[in-house]
Structure formats: structure tokens, C-alpha cells
Amino acid sequence: MQYLMDLVNWLTNPPILFTVAIVAFFLALRTRWVWTNRFFIIWTSGLTLFFLVSLAHPHFREIVTKGDNIPIVIMVYAVSFFVWLGLKQAYENDERIARGEPPWEASFQGEKEYVWPDLVYIEFLSTLVVGLGLLVWSLFVPAPLEQPADPTNSPNPSKAPWYFLGLQEMLVYYDPWIAGVLLPGLIIIGLMCIPYIDVNPRGNGYYTFRERKAEITLYLFGFLILWCLLIFIGTFLRGPNWNFFGLYEEWDIHKVEPLTNVDLSEYFWIRLLGQPLPAQWYVREAPGLVLVVLYLFGLPPLLAKTFLRRYYEKMGFIRYNIFVLLLLIMLSMPIKMYLRWLFNLKYIVHLQEFEFNI
Predict the structure, then answer these.
(1) CB 35 within 8 Å of CB 274
(2) For residue range 172-209, what is the model confidence (pLDDT) as tens digits?
(3) Rounded CA gap, 251 and 50, in Å?
(4) Contact between residue 322 and residue 197 where contact means Cβ atoms under 8 Å apart
(5) DSSP per residue over 15-58, as a string?
(6) Distance CA 224, CA 230 (A)
(7) How far apart are CA 123 and CA 329, in angstroms?
(8) Among residues 317, 318, 299, 295, which one has the least CA distance to residue 307?
(9) Alpha helices in the chain (DSSP H)
(10) What gap in Å lies between CA 225 and CA 220, rounded to an integer?
(11) Among 34, 102, 271, 286, which residue has the least CB neighbours within 10 Å?
(12) What is the rounded CA–CA span in Å between residue 89 and residue 95?
């Protein structure tokens, strides 16, 4: 039993968990069997069994049953179900189209659903069910209220509400203005741009994966890996002093994690060239600035002539560049996380003179 717990603790080490999640994500999208009833029953049963058995562990039970953390457990089940349901319907439609049949949604063509009474009736029932669920929740789950705020006694760990934990996790890897302002703003702008960037008429009005592979893959990667998984990590794996802890590991406040954060300029000038850091900021940060410029402005034209040539021809200059810029910014997040985990790299560009860090 201890061996299995050690294995789970090892697997929930964020670099390993993140890597396993990314590999599983791409494999699952390409595996038809995953989007079947049988797999969902096995997945849900296995997940439930895992939770129930793990509740015997006092630390796991304490963390999972906290009022703040119960929504995360519900989120795991809800996200699993709705992603599975959508892709199951998409794969089934792809098979129908491959056989020369219309999508399942087309079988209702000509039929009408009226707002009154059909839609209002469903919404009313949904309101009653959700209201009943919240009532039961409020009766059996104590509100996660804490002691009155005391500036001399901060909670450790001090966490944001569960729905902001993904954002709080970003703050570990980015400067506050990037994690707290720029990235959330770009997420909203990116979502607003989707209808203008993605003008592929296929898939309108019906589920499909084959006709929109790239779009669905990118969206789900951002939602599942870069948002839901970060909330999970922030909730269950971040403990005192913001250290990482395994799923069954006790949150020892005295745990010491030697972490030497190093900037790229220090790697380049001191460790690679064996020289002290230059006094001029533009010389000191030149390697990082060059990398950032090449990444954001050199990669798009290169990709337009190689891997993304088809997209460039289809989308045109402006839409292609907006799309690739948003894509690169999104991918910079896991890149930055891996650089921190593997090399303790803190900032690629560290301009303390202007309080501007990347």
C-alpha cells in the first residue's frame, strides 16, 4: 500500500503530472475507444474508486473534504463528463459523415423547439435541481469561513478562491503584471477573436472532430491543461510556503525546498561565458531580448513557410499573425513552467531598472 502511495506522490510531482497529462491529452484525442460509453464507465468507476479508497488516508480526506476544495472534485467529474460527451458525439458524427450519412443533428431538421413552453420548462426544472443541490450543500458542508483577517498572522498557504487558483499558479512563473493583467486579458481577447480567426464553416450546427481537429485541440489544451489542471495543482498539491506536496504527503510546514532561481542573463554571462554581469541593462539582457523577439516575431513567418503554411494560405496575413501570436503566447506558459521546474530559470528578461520582467 505504501508503495502505491509513493507512486501516486511521485506521479503528482508537477513536472511529471504535467507531462503525463499532456501525453494523455493528445493520445486520448486520437483514440476512438476513449470516447465510448464503455471507457467512460471505466474512467468514472476508477476515479470514484480512487477517491473512496483515498479517503481512508487522513491527509487526503482533510484536503478533499474542505469546503473550498469540494468544487474541484465536482469540477473533475463535470469536466470529464461534458468533454467526453461532446467528443463522443463528434466522433459519432464523423463516422456518420464517412458513411455518407448526415450528422445526427440533421435528423431533427424541420422540427422546431419553441422557447415557450419547451425551453422555459427545461430551464425551470434545471433551476429547481440546482437550487436543491445548493440547499443540500449548504446544509451538509460548512462554509469555509476563517478567522477575522489579521495582518500579523497570514494563513500558510494563503490561497485565492478555487476559481482563481489557476491564475495564482501563473504568478509563480510570471511577473505579476503578466500573470495578473496581460495573460487574463489575452485569454479574453483570444476568446473574442475566435469567431473572426476561425471562419471554417464546417462543424456549424453539429459536433465534429475530424473537420476541426486543430481548433478543438488548441481550445481543449488551453482549457484542460492550462486552466483546469493548474486549478487542480493549486488546490491539492500546493501546501505551506507554497511548496509542492504529493497527493498523500503530509503538509509539513518545516519542509525545505532549496530553490535557486536564476535569470537567463546569469546563465549566459556567468555560467556560460564566465564573466560578470554587464553593467548596462541592454547588454546584460540582450540574450533574453533576442530570444523573446525571435520567439514572437521570428517564429510566425518561419512557421508560415513550414508547418503552418496551409493555415497562412487559408487565413491570410492578418488573421494568421493574430492566430500565431496568441498561440505562441499560450504555449509560452508551459515552456516557462518547464524551464522553472527543470533549470530553475526565473526570468528570461529581468529589467529591474524598469520593473519589467518576462
Answers:
(1) no
(2) 888 888 888 888 888 888 888 887 887 777 778 889 99
(3) 21
(4) yes
(5) HHHHHHHHHHHHHHHT-GGGGSHHHHHHHHHHHHHHHHHHTTSH
(6) 9
(7) 38
(8) 299
(9) 2-11, 14-29, 37-54, 58-64, 70-98, 120-140, 165-173, 176-177, 183-197, 213-220, 229-232, 264-266, 281-284, 286-293, 299-305, 309-315, 317-343
(10) 8
(11) 271
(12) 10
Coil, helix or strand for 357? Answer: strand
**Contact present, 349 and 285 (Cβ < 8 Å):** yes
Going by C-alpha positions, the residue among 320, 358, 34, 64 that lies closest to residue 199 is 320
pLDDT in tens, 108-139: 777 777 888 888 999 999 999 999 999 998 89
Cell of 315: 487565413
Cα dihedral 168→169→170→171 (10° resolution): 60
| pTM for this predicted structure | 0.85
Contact (CB, 8 A) for 21 and 344: no
